[in-house]
Structure formats: C-alpha cells, structure tokens
Amino acid sequence: MLTLRWSATSPYVRKVMMVAIEGGLDGRLSCRATDPWSPGTDLPADNPLGKVPVLTLEDGTVLFDSPVIVEYLATLAPAAGLLPEPGPARWAALRLQAVADGICDAAILRRLETNRPDGERSAGWVERQRRAVARALDLLEAEAAGLAVERPTVGTLAVLSALGYLDFRFGREDWRDGRPALAAWFAAASDRDSVRRTAPPAG
Q1: Nearest Cα to 74, choosing from 64, 85, 65?
Q2: Which domains are assigned to the chain?
Q3: Ranges of the chain with pLDDT below 50
C-alpha cells in the first residue's frame, strides 16, 4: 500500500488524487490526513519542506513534491497515457503542469499575504501574484483549443486542479470573465469522475 499525506484543500494533493484515479491506482493509496500548518505536525519528518503531498512507497522511499509524485504514479499506469512518451506531447503536458502549479503557487502566496494582520500586508505583493495568475490564465485561454477532455494528461489534470482552486479560494473573482474558451473546456472536463470525486470541501 502507498501512503499519501493528504489535505482536502490542497490543489497539489487534488492533482495527485486525480492522477491516481485516472490511472486506476486510488485503491492502492492509503490517505493520511495532514494539516501542514499545525504546530505539532510531524510532517517535516517525511518532507523537510513541511508541505503536502508526500507519498511513501511500499519500500519506505518517500517522494515529494507533486510533480515527482504524479510522474511516479503515471509510470505505474502507463496505459492511461497520463505522462506521454518523451517528445513534443510530453513537453506539452509538463509545460501545462508548470503553468498550473504556478497558478496555485501565486494564488496561495496571495491568500497568505492577504490573511496577514493589518499593517503587515504588502498590497504590491498581492497585486504581483494576482497579475501572475491573470497572465497564466490568458495563456491557457489562448491555448484552450488544444486542451484534451477525453484523454487527460498530468498537464490537463493540473490545470483542472488549479482552476478549481481559484473557484474554491477566490470564487468572488470570476476567472472565466473574458476567457470563454477556457471556461467551456473547464466545464466539459469537470464532468470527469476524477474531478467530481476530488472536489474541495464546500464553504
């Protein structure tokens, strides 16, 4: 059994879970709920960076972070085609994953900064992260016609997780505005079982 340090609100964990489900591997995962922000967490014993997800293999090997974990899971289910063979299709999938993870990085940094006490927040830093997300979304809009619905990759699953995280944490800011192609793709791709089963908690 593989052990996954897990959090329902992490978009990186969600990406890993979607890859596992698409690859038919979710039955091999034992999910261990972990709050990386808890002062008493033992998470650094598995990942010195103190972040989830963390995957412990059956032989005790510990893998982090999410790009490494999804690559490992994809190799366990090659028939699913989640990580294409070396060549243009693989670079496209990995590039998409990088864009999506970057959206999550910037969104999380923005949220953390916004939640700091009055007098400690940097409006410039918040705006820098907002602009980074907006530029990445504009790129995805321009390339939405090439995003697959029926044959997902680690890249398209990462994008689904990132857009879902924006809805989860920044729902009052509609990223769909001015991005009709990306919005249409997201609506269609969100009908997948892996997306429905990994939705973050409501509220």
Answers
A1: 85
A2: 2-80 (3.40.30.10), 88-197 (1.20.1050.10)
A3: none
